[in-house]
Amino acid sequence: QTVKELQETINGHQNGIGVILALPKASEGKKVNANAAETLEAVSNLARTGRISTLLIIDNQKISTLYPNLSVSKFWEAANSSLVGLFHLYNLTASKDSSYSSFDPKDYLQILNSGLVTLSASPVKDWKDPVCISRVVRENIKNNSLCDGMDFSSGSCAGIIAIGSADVLDNVPQSHLDGAFSQLSRMLRPNSTVHIGIYSGDQQSLNIFTMVGGLEKPVEKIKQLRQAGDIR
Questions:
Q1: If we measure between CA atoms, which residue out of 51, 44, 49 comes closest to residue 16?
Q2: What is the SS3 assignment for 97?
């Protein structure tokens, strides 16, 4: 409400309000997790009703499972850079043209303004295998998302960006990427929209980045927080 009032006071050109919400690890205690459950519930409802245009969640419990062997001094750096690095990549990519297929600013804004949004990334170990590329897309969303407990079948829109070296893009069949992109579309709700970008990069590899938006309230994650907070 305070941000809304500020926008009206300064006659802001943008009406959207973005929220980045950090969730605790289970080890941070019952009270902290109980508070987080109530906050996530409330903020998710604001995103669902459109009062929040963008909701990004950093789930520190999930990040601790993604990076289980990090030292104390490196953990929080990894937690912060996990979201910031992906967010920055999308910001930069959406501003660039591609000689293959561009993920343009309008595509990006549609996803950002769709409410609850999640980001993920993963390398493709064997880009010559079409099954491997499709598997990466599927597992990227389910296993590498920065927050647990998301219902990806409720997503209304998504962006998927493939970044590969010139050598990779000269040799990987377009049909392999199309199959992977279709895999993402099938994971979302009916009549969803998937925006695609293919870009050339410097590294001799192929990496897949996904952004899914319009997600429903993360009921399972709220349940996990309530259990950790001992809320009956």
A1: 51
A2: coil
pLDDT range class, residue 221, cuts 50, 70, 90: very high
Residue type at position 137: V
In tens, the pLDDT along 107-158 reads 999 999 999 999 988 889 888 888 999 888 888 888 878 888 899 999 999 9
Residue 2 sits at the vertex; the CA angle it makes with 226 and 118, to the nearest 5 degrees, is 45
Question: pTM for this structure?
Answer: 0.88
- DSSP string over 10-45: TT-S----EEEEEE--GGG-HHHHHHHHHHHHHHHH
Give 7-58 pLDDT, tens digit per residue: 888 887 777 889 999 999 889 999 999 999 999 999 999 999 989 999 999 8
Give me 70's structure tokens. 């990090």
DSSP assignment letter at 145: S
Pull the structure tokens for residue 29.
């205690």
* DSSP summary character for residue 172: S
User: First CA to last CA across the chain, in angstroms?
Assistant: 30
Burial of residue 29 (number of CB atoms within 10 Å: 0-12, 13-18, 19+) = middle
Size (the chain), residues:
232
Distance CA 140, CA 193 (A): 18
